[in-house]
């Protein structure tokens, strides 16, 4: 018996020599599989005499199951340069009244006339 499935591929940029993609299923046997995203924003640490602002939206992930989200964005341009931010959120943290959020943290890429990086951390939107 065949079951119709639809969805989309999410690019994987890991360093695994067996390059792969993540499949996000959006429909199973004619029924939608809910997916969702979160917004994230913040300000980096103050290093090399400045900081940077950043904002973005996570990649989609399935709803109703344990999950994380990948995220990627660029910082604001400050001191004539910007940095890249990318990573994977922590697991979903449930809220008492329903819904959830994720924590995220990491370090930017090394950039600037005087090469440096910034740390960042925060919570996604609900």
Enumerate how many helices there are, as a single number. 0
Q: Main β-sheet: number of strands, strand sense, barrel status?
A: 3 strands, antiparallel
Pattern of helices and strands: EEEEEEEEEEEEE
What would you report as the Rg, rounded to the nearest angstrom? 17 Å
Protein name: YmaF family protein
Organism: Ureibacillus yapensis
Pfam family, one: YmaF
Region (Disordered): 106-126
Topology overview:
Blueprint: E1 5-11, E2 21-28, E3 31-32, E4 35-36, E5 39-43, E6 53-57, E7 61-62, E8 70-74, E9 84-88, E10 93-94, E11 100-101, E12 103-107, E13 119-123
Antiparallel strand pairs: 1-2, 2-3, 4-7, 5-6, 8-9, 10-11, 12-13
What does this structure look like?
With 126 residues, this protein is mainly beta. It has two domains: 1-33, no CATH class; 34-123, no CATH class. Helices cover 0% and strands 44% of the residues. It contains no helices and 13 strands. The protein has strands spanning 5-11, 21-28, 31-32, 35-36, 39-43, 53-57, 61-62, 70-74, 84-88, 93-94, 100-101, 103-107, 119-123. It has a three-stranded antiparallel sheet with strand order 1-2-3, with no helix packed on it. Strands 4-7 form a two-stranded antiparallel ribbon. It is elongated. The model has no long low-confidence stretch (mean pLDDT 87). It comes from Ureibacillus yapensis. This is YmaF family protein. InterPro entries: YmaF. Residues 106-126 are annotated as: Disordered.
């Amino acid at each position: 018996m065949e079951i119709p499935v639809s969805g989309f591929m999410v690019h994987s940029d890991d360093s695994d020599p067996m390059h792969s993609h993540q499949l996000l299923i959006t429909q199973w046997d004619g029924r939608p599989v809910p997916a969702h995203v979160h917004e994230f924003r913040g300000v980096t640490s103050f290093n090399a005499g400045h900081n940077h602002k950043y904002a973005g939206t996570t990649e989609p992930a399935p709803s109703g199951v344990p999950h994380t989200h990948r995220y990627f964005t660029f910082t604001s341009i400050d001191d004539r340069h910007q940095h890249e931010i990318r990573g994977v959120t922590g697991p979903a943290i449930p809220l008492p009244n329903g819904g959830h959020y994720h924590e995220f943290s990491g370090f930017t890429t090394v950039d600037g006339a005087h090469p440096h990086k910034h740390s960042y951390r925060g919570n996604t939107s609900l």
